[in-house]
Amino acid sequence: MNTLTILTIILFAMDVEMSKKLTFQKKLKLITSPYQRLWYEDYVEAVINFFQHMLHLKDYYSSMKKILITILLMGAPFLFAFAQISETEDLPLVPEDMQYVQAKVIDSQVDEQGYKIYYAELKDGKIIEVDSYGEPVEIGSRIFLQYFPDEDLYNFITVNRNTSVIALFVIFVGSILLLARKKGVRSLLSLTASFLLLFFGLVPLLLNGYDPILTSLFFGLAVLFLSIFVTHGFNWQSFVSFLGSVTSILIAIILLSIISDTTLLTGLINEHVQYLSFEVGDTVNLVRLISASIIIGILGVLDDITITQVAVVRELSSDNTLSKKNIFTKALNVGKDHIASLVNTLVFAYVGATLPLIMFIALLKVPIVVLLSQEFIFVEIARSLIGAIALTIAVPVTTWLAVFVFLKPIHKDACSLESACAHTHH
Asked: Do 292 and 212 contact (CB within 8 A), yes or no?
């Protein structure tokens, strides 16, 4: 059963305006002809009618449910496109007969040439010689090896550091649960779902040649949906935060497209991208892939700043002495302080990740105007600046939406936390 069939069954079941817009014959045709295109005109018209119908409902929670259904159904055609993808072809990264094995280092010695050779014990008790290629290995530590059965050859990969990773992960989860409790649980759930989407959805699509920017956009929206609604609940605050974040991402994509088209980029900014290029050939557009990585990089920070802005508006809406203009001004003042701190956070996060590169650049006697035009440096600068621009735009856009478009339902959110709320803002 494909996505169109599932969508049709949902339309049959829903008692809303959308279900009435598709005739029985078209619904039947959708089921019997699974590879036919969706009637987009009927689909869009149905969504609009449904949204208008939703806005006239008086029940608050029912409206929120219908908002979420609208978001999901509007993305259904794109889900159908993703559903038609074939399985990712196996890339020839390693020989088919190669195996990964673990061993425990039990001894070491220096050979005649002065190189250190380690002796490791496999799980079956076999003792083998291992060359770590200069990487220090302690006696008693466990290592990962590549085993090639045809040559009976073992090749050193790295030291097993899984214990440290697990320990850090336990501390991370424990600190979140201890401080955030129920909201921390929701945050971890949304984080887990987001990673599953990225690794098992986004990456296979990119490897199959789907456009990196468009694919990252749709998966980015899914990640935002999870991180905002699952973590902060299904309410108007989350909905407005989602809209503000989406607007900022779209503006960032426009900037990225302009930069990509006018700066003659190749996408070969480091050895990892070069290795990927060797394996996938022309399947992946490397320039658009770099742009997609920038989009993914700003998702988490947008969640923070947009949620905060709507929360400020929600709290100010309880003051009946404030007009909408006053609320907008005060909330924007809070957002300015938030922007200053988050921009520093974003830029220095990128600087910290590229510190060795910065140290290397400091040793080069190259004019600054030449350095700025080097692609690997230019991309990092663009990454920081476009992320900062997206954050800056998110504050006024989200604040404006919260104050001048969705203030009444947001005020109801505030009233659910307080007792007396019987005023309106003009």
From this structure: yes
**How big is the chain, counted in residues?**
426
Residue 27 CA to residue 217 CA, distance in Å, equals 30
Task: Give the mean pLDDT of the chain.
Answer: 77
Whether the model pTM is above 0.70:
no
Q: Show the CA angle centred on residue 312, arms to residues 306 and 313, nearest 5°.
A: 95
Cβ partners under 8 Å of residue 295, min gap 6: 213, 216, 217, 220, 249, 252, 253, 256
- Helical axes 375-400 vs 299-316, angle rounded to 10°: 20
Angle at alpha carbon of residue 399, lines to 299 and 224, rounded to 5°: 20
pLDDT at position 400 = 94
> Does residue 174 carry a pLDDT above 90?
yes
What is the end-to-end Cα distance of the chain in Å, rounded?
51
Convert the pLDDT of each residue in 261-309 to its tens digit. Answer: 888 888 888 888 888 888 887 788 888 888 888 888 888 778 888 998 9
With a cut of 70, say whether residue 412 has pLDDT above it: yes
Q: For 404-424, what is the mean pLDDT?
A: 68
- Cβ neighbours of residue 342 closer than 8 Å, sequence gap 6 or more: 301, 304, 305, 391
CA atoms of 159 and 143, how far apart (whole Å): 4
Query: What Å distances lie between residue 164 and 103, 141, 168, 169, CA to CA?
Result: 18, 13, 6, 9
* Listed residue (105, 109, 91) closest to 144, CA to CA: 105
Which residues are bridge partners to 40 per DSSP? none
- Report the greatest alpha carbon distance in the chain: 88
Higher pLDDT, 8 or 386: 386
